[in-house]
């Protein structure tokens, strides 16, 4: 039998995938992941168990992947590995192709997913209670005057950057308004991660996580903790530069005719003057 005829293309692709992942893993800077130097002061290269932990897979399974074993990694797992190995978009597409998966579309929409008009009407009916609509990838697709009064910068933020996670982790104004920023930011991230596995737009999810890793060390550390929690109504406090301390209850609604959206409303806490303060704040922004 000719030696060329004996070559198994699938096996060759698995070997190439394993070698490629190993090379990328060995070139990572440990300090970028808040990891101490490895043996003998080695500052480059993550261990297999460290990448496995970050990617949410077992060490054995990830070792098999690098060894070129005959396993069938899902797109979701490859996405996680790509994010944690800090692969570029072409490198990400390359490992997908080696596994017989089509490259993810990279086009980033210039604006958030469109929000139905009746959802906007609902938000406006809640004024002066701050309320906004989140898309599946946590882009803020619509809001009312109450939310704009609470966060005036929402109108000037470019559509691509109008994402609740990005604003929470990178916007100084938002961070300055949250006395419990550490708790709130991690709560948001755990809630987002709880739904990340079912995102239909995986490319948007990967692009968001990859970008935030580069822009925020706080995000990278929190993301690597793998916390997962579903949304729960809770008290929220804001320190507004004009209205002062505002106390709310945070609630969530999912429209039955627009299930990919979530409406977040901040209801003034009973026994506080937040409702009056919000009414004054909204009135002042109108004039």
Automatic annotation (TrEMBL):
Q: Where is the HTH cro/C1-type domain?
A: 20-92
Q: InterPro entries from the xrefs?
A: Cro/C1-type_HTH (IPR001387), Lambda_DNA-bd_dom_sf (IPR010982), MLTR_LBD (IPR041413)
Domain of life where this protein originates: Bacteria
Pfam families under this entry? HTH_31 (PF13560), MLTR_LBD (PF17765)
What name is this protein filed under?
Answer: Helix-turn-helix transcriptional regulator
Q: What is the lineage of its organism?
A: Bacteria, Bacillati, Actinomycetota, Actinomycetes, Micrococcales
